[in-house]
Every structure is written in structure tokens, then in C-alpha cells.
Amino acid sequence: MADLSVEICGVKLKNPVIAASGTFGFGREYNLLYDISVLGGVSTKGLTPEPRLGNPVPRIAEGDSVILNAVGLQNPGVDAFLENDFKFLSKKTAVIANVAGKTLDDYAEICGKLDGYADFIELNISCPNVKAGGMAFGIRPESIKEVTRISKSALKYTPLIVKLSPNVESIAVNAQAAQAGGADAVSLINTLTGMVVDIEKRRPVIANNTGGVSGAGIRPIALRMVYEAAHSVNIPVIGMGGITCAEDAIAFMMAGARAVQVGTANFTDGNAMPKIISGMNSWLDAHGIKSVNEIVDTLVLNG
Ligand SMILES: Cc1cc2nc3c(=O)[nH]c(=O)nc-3n(C[C@H](O)[C@H](O)[C@H](O)COP(=O)(O)O)c2cc1C
Hints:
Strand content: 15-25%
Structural class: alpha/beta
Distance between the termini: 35 Å
CATH topology: TIM Barrel
Strand order of the largest sheet: 3-4-7-8-9-10-15-16
CATH class: Alpha Beta
Bound molecules: flavin mononucleotide
């Protein structure tokens, strides 16, 4: 069997397959389906300083090979996470604590609380579904650099991943801004902003009107952006967006990702991630490749 272990910012993961933020809760429900300790890691739902109920319903809509969501950062708050969920999750797998704030101070405060506990902090500066904050930090390079710098200065032990929005002018410039602000890694992509309409009601399906588009349909966009980001920075890149099977995960790693995250696929098949992990093993074995690290950044462009 091929070696699937990877090391990112000095942290060793069993394999490069991580549950994407907001699609896996804190792992408890999926752990009823399978032992989640088989995963490389879990990125938590976005944590805020205070508990949040999120946006009004309906907040999920289906499209063709995509879904739209405007959950709006429903979460129990960072303190309740540390008290009730962290221990369970950290005994199972690497914990990527996804954090979101309205102000720079929010980001610094949450990072300070999670420092030394979580294996990684993942800054969600790109949430398209909350009115104040979130997205505002994730669009312009100067603000990406600033929120990264402030968050990094609150951290002594835990490496910082900055999660990038695809709803931007240049993913390469924004990845570089995160690196310049002190990010230890970047992850991408978050959801693309979209709308689904109910023509009988002449209204958008989602109460929030717009939502974040995710799932298989966004994969070509995500792959292109991961390639561009990976070739514009020298920190590790974690790729995601529409990954549903082992072959998808392998394509992202060939494009330069050192690990991948799987989100919406967990909704269509609760066992998607264990299947991806065993499928990667089979593919590597069939191709005589001993370690998954050997495929990273091996894509050769045409012409
Ligand atoms: C229901 C839902 C909730 C999400 N919540 C978060 C979140 O709290 N923080 C975050 O950084 N990303 C969040 N995301 C984005 C995902 O982590 C991921 O970036 C995106 O869905 C693309 O991957 P996928 O196509 O595999 O789902 C959410 C996605 C969905 C579908």
C-alpha cells in the first residue's frame, strides 16, 4: 500500500484528505457512519467569538451538480467548541479550526483562544453569506495581508492557513498577499457567489437571495485557481472545490495542492471521504507510486 501521509507546516497528517469547513460539523454525526480517525483532518464549521444562529431559512438550494448555501456561520461560538467538541475531535484526527470574524479584533481574539490547541487555524476571510465582515476582508490584497498579519501575531504555536475567496480579481495576487502577511499556508477555494430562482414565485429560492455555490460543478474553476495559487507562492496550498472521488483529489494534487478538502460530496455520499482515501491508495498502487507526495505539482501544461 502506498504511503498517503503528508506533512504541512511541520504537522504530519495520516493522509491528505480533510473534511471541508461547514460540511462536517465537528465530526460527531459522520462518526456514526464510520470512524473519522481514518481522515487526514477535519476543518470545523466557522467559529465566531459568540454563538450564532445563522441566516433565516431556506438557506440551501440545489442546482445542477452544485448546491447553494447561505447558512451564515451558524456555530456554538469558540468557547463552547473548546469546551464541548475539541477533545472529541482532536482524539480522532487533526483539527483545523476554521475561524470567522466581523472585525480584526475578532480574528485576533479567536486565534489567541485556539492557539496551541488546534493543529491549524484556517482563516475564513471569504464567507459570502454574512453581511458584515467575512468577505470584506477576503477581496482586496491589502486587507488580506492585514487580517493575516493580525491573526498571525496572536499565534505562537499553531500554524495559520488563510482560506481564499474565488470571488476576486486575481487569486495569485491574493495568495501572495496572504503569504506576505505571514500565512503558513493557503487553502482554496471557498464558494462562488450565485443565485437560484423559483420562477413561479419570481423569487430567489434562498431567503438571503444569494448563496455560495459548491459541489462538482465548480471543480474546473477550483482546479484552475489552485494551479494559479500554487504557482505564485512558496507556502503549501490546500485545494478544494467539487472534489467527489479519488481521481479528483489526485488532479488537485498534481496541480500543486499538498492536501485537499472535501465538502459538498459528504452530503451526496456520507462515505465519500473514506472512499476517496482508499481510491487514492489503489490509484497510486496501480501506477507503482510509493508516496502520495510524489504526485504533487507534477502537472505539465500543454504547448
Ligand atoms: C453548507 C456549507 C457551509 C459552509 N461553511 C463554511 C464555513 O463556515 N467556513 C468556510 O471557510 N467555508 C465554508 N464552506 C465552504 C466549504 O468549506 C468549501 O470551501 C466549498 O464548499 C467548496 O468545496 P466543495 O465543493 O467540496 O463543497 C461551506 C460550504 C457549504 C456547502
